[in-house]
Amino acid sequence: MTLRDWQARLSRHFSVLAEGRSAQRGSSVFVLEHGLTPDELAGLSSAVRAQIFTSPPLREHELPWMVYAAELGYRYSGDEYWQTFEKETPGWIRHGKRDWIRDCFKAFKHRGGAVPSGPWAAHFSIICWPLTHAIIPRDLQVQLARLLYDLRFQFTRDLIDSPQELGNLISLRSWRCTSRFQDFARQQAIIGQIAAALVTGAGEGQHGFLLDSTLLRITADLEKQRDAREWLTRARNEARDRTSLHGLLLPAAGRVADLRNTDPARAKEAARQETFRLGIEARLQVRRSSTVEGGWDLFVELPDLSPLLIAFPEFAATLKGSRCTVAGYHGRPLARERLLHRGEPLPLHEWPRPDEVLLHFDQAPWELDFLLRTDSLLTPSPIRLFRIGPDGIGYELKQASVRAGCRYLAISTGTLTTTAPRVQISCAGLAAVLLEVPTPLTSEWQDRLRHLGIGQSVTLTVWPVGVPAAKWDREGRAEWLTSERPLIAIRSDYPVASLSVRLDRLVPLEQTGLSGDRPSYIELPALPPGRHTVSIVARDHAGREQAGELEVTSREPVPWSPSASPGSALLVSVDPPRPSLEDLWEGRVSIEVAGPVGRAITCDIALYDAEGAPPRTARRFTNMSLPVTEAGWKDLLRDRITSDGGLSAAYDAARYALLRLAAGEFGLFELRCARESTPLRWSAATTNIGRSITLLDDTGFSDAINARHYDFARPDVALSFDRLEAGTAVEVSADGGLYVAERGSALAAMVIAPRVTLQDFAALAFDPQLASRDRHEGAVLASLRLIKLWADARLFGGVFASLRQQTVLLAFTRHLVFLLGGNSWDQAERLATTTGRLEGLRRAVGTRWDEASLASAIWECAATMARQSVASRVLKFSSLLQSHLHLRLPPGEVAGVGPGGERLIDRHRDSNPEHPDWLAELGLRLASDPARATTWLGTNLKMGVSHLIEKPQIPRAARFAVLCIGNYLPPEPVPAGRVHAGWEWP
Known about the structure:
single chain, alpha+beta, eight-stranded antiparallel beta sheet, 34 helices, 37% helix
């Protein structure tokens, strides 16, 4: 068949398909639904290749070309689309044009064709079309199957019939998947249509969500992997069983408007009700102190905030991408995504204030902070009661009531006036007493409990039976999964005439009678995620009533993860949670492993060139034991992994790495790190005669390529390439440097280490010299742009590239302080670090009496600040600036009235360049990690720079503080792209 014949056949096919699909709201046509057999597809491909070999493609043959391009997209796995296209299509480089392919697909949307959308489509403006019409590339299919399996208990008829709603759900829940899948899932209508087709299966011909033959093809590819086959089968079975359910089993979204109420009391109550509805609550527990004899430690079990991803999608970027600080906890900020699953409880060192945000994310929307206030997550109570179990752990009770013969710990922020024995509790701001409740309960004990505001438990008993509850506090709180149907038992120790049970005070469940010794059993219906209340009223024969409640929290099943599994003896923390291959290799990943102390652990790492292929190279590292600290992991990475010649040689060509940590019977943890998929990127290679780099371009931009090179010795002077074409290898200098290419809005940067032999090893030492010496705002902004360019660049050359990058960034940081603060700071710091005597820098902070006193105060406080968190260092540094430089607080607004009648003034600290705290943080960020400071500044960049130029003492004092604090920090490797260790900014 000729291309004209293929065009006519495909035109008829897609017209019929589009007509049948038009009746389905929100359903599109995909080019992969061409309906061709493998033999026919081979014939079409041969005709396409024969034509392009001799002449350019024609629009009258666009459909065969689109099928050809979509088939290549179906095999795409995140590597170079156009390089593969050009290799398999001889003549394309000479006769073809990339934007011609895009124009063909754009025209197809008038036939009902799918249209790519979202940031991913903007970055890959051409290949997004064939990839979208490939429906779902093979490397993403397994992730979709796993996600459908995880979401199977959410399926209802209405959800499956609405591709947009199903796609919204998948997109919101894709945060555990790879970044490429998350980008793909942002096309909610498209992925919803694909998912609906997969769970409903074939059998509807051209009137289903996907053409039967295409759906069977995708399913067959999925089923080649055992896990994917099992996930898809179980998801389909659950969808079939639940299609009788109507409605969406999801919490309603968009409750932020309730928080904008002008009445503070009503807004606060709305926030409390919303967190209660979603089942978001911080729960407390007490444990015997390991340091104080007879004392107790207070722990907080932080809530799982994943329900907020559904109820408030606008919070997703903050919840997934920011670290969180916990009020009252003096440890480091929590790793990103730590609060999107249950984890180990944290110790509370001091009791948070009611008006304080218990869980604060960096640059969080104010609505999120309002929801996460202390009094929203820790229900206000004059006294908190913990029932102590046989294991010595006490769990907070829903109601402050006791049972005879049990042990309790009562705590309060006020004064506990009682004769019960007082005990020490490690949380500052609390008093605690131990209650050994006797049997029977004497009148003296009843008076003591009444005085404390504690009651006695009623004789109506409720408990879970059947499928064990995920959690049960024995006193009125239980937790099940949405996949389970809870069964509860109710018993009374006196005759009951009738029993009334209601769910959420609205739905009557059952009315029955109870005898004294025989319980009644009530099965609850399938519950949507969130918190529910089972209200129980028992009436005796005289008409007297006794009421009680069971609080039931329903949570969705969480996919098993060794780092989040409470039953595993091997607990692994990874930050960021889904690192790229570059993140792993360049030291931007923090890994900590907890488990049985002293237990041997092995680390296996394998590098792969392609999905399904055997590893290119693999290594096993032993002689390790638990626990593995963050510093221990960085040592392993630097000294054994990235310095391994075989691994380093395979790294740049690898598509992904598989890291496995194993401790025998105690557990196994696997981490998959894929290469970042960017539209413009460098690929480096080493041969016997030298090194070369190739620019890989999937941008689709027609702009000319702007390529330049920076030497290590003069890192702010750009040297142009004579000529650079995408896909063509270019030799690089033996001295290495920073290589940059820009096309349109896309940018690629790579730091390449110099070629080093044992004979010239000493030549690694160098002293970068910066050309710019003009002190003005423009010079500062230009330096910040170059700092970010050097810091964000990929590294080629292992540890040598990292060391060179760090030396350049350190020189830029010194120069930045000179540009902002003057006073010949650059030379003064060079001299001080060479001699190792930082006290000489005190004079460089300033010679005026207020500047000298500020430098002395920093010198004296450095040891204390080194032990503090970064946030606490900011507040301390701000207080020093206010005391010695007399910085004033900005005017504020009245935010309310305090308990003593005083006015509460909101000074707007966050993103307010007039606030001393903000200026202090800006100074410390620029002095310790300037590359990431520009992102934090956002739209305040120019204003912040202007303020520091007007107050040059601040950048000089900030740099002096960073260097002094560094003297007291434990020695740690500096991560790639950073200047100093010990400054992990949120």
